[in-house]
Design brief:
This protein has 161 residues and is mostly helical. Helix content is 68%, strand content 0%. The longest helix is centred in the last third of the chain and has 20 residues. It starts with 7 loop residues before the first helix and ends in an 11-residue tail after the last helix.
């Protein structure tokens, strides 16, 4: 391992010292679409209004542009961390969305199972029980359709991000 300091450009993803807010937003939108799928992002944007517009802008710029574009973790690792956070806090709709995203990011069902087993120890068995049920439902939908159609079942609300 080299003792040299990382290049600032590499370390910060799209959030460069001279980056405009629009460049950060655009970089975040690229990653958001790659991870969550264009259909999901289009639904989230179609549902925004004057009340939620600032929130949509914030999550695209800060979460997707500021964090998900950073090179320090792989997308698979980011998905694992995100799944764990969703289980820990009981955000089941978001968990379903991020299980689909984890598959898009290259995690296997076995890896997702291992993440959920890990959450049973650190987040609690009842939370992991619900997480396993959520994952089963996501996998059943994925097995019966394509990824874009499975992005959000017709009867499920689209999480805002």
């Amino acid at each position: 391992m080299s003792g040299a300091a990382p290049n600032r450009g590499e370390r910060n993803g799209v959030v460069q010292p001279d980056a405009t807010s629009q460049e950060i937003y655009d970089g975040g939108m690229v990653v958001r679409r790659e991870v969550l799928g264009a259909a999901h992002v289009d639904r989230a944007n179609a549902n925004k209004d004057e009340f939620t517009d600032d929130f949509q802008d914030m999550i695209t710029r800060i979460a997707w542009g500021g964090i998900w574009t950073r090179p320090g973790l792989s997308r698979q690792m980011r998905s694992a961390v995100t799944i764990t956070a969703m289980v820990a806090h009981g955000h089941w709709e978001e968990l379903a969305m991020h299980i689909r995203a984890a598959i898009t990011n290259g995690l296997s069902r076995d890896e997702i199972k291992e993440i959920l087993l890990q959450t049973a120890i650190y987040c609690g068995v009842p939370a992991a029980n619900t997480a396993f049920k959520t994952a089963q439902q996501v996998f059943q939908v994925l097995d019966s359709t394509d990824m874009d159609a499975a992005a959000t079942p017709d009867n499920a609300p689209t999480p805002p991000n």
